[in-house]
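Appendix B. Raw example, untouched.
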Amino acid sequence: MAGENALVQAVPSAVRDAGSGPPNPSAQPDTRWKRVQGFACELTVDLRVPGFKITDLLKLRLGSIVDAGWRTGQDIPLCLNGTRIGWVEFDVVSNHLAVRMTELA
């Protein structure tokens, strides 16, 4: 899974470079967080599929496409350990699917 780790390592620098405008001093790590910075957490994009049924689940095969009903460019909830922390939109970075932060909760 070296490729997966490479993508995760590439994200922090992309996050720093993605914003426009002046640097945000509050974006710098606070020294109070130093002891917990290495803790694992789960970051999820909460893409709900309204109307999806068990029948639909049983029909899934390799290559199946599920219409999520979300419009292109529509913000999607971003959660950290089950708590919504903001909204994102999908993006492509070097042939990888990524998300771009659009709003903090």
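End of appendix B.
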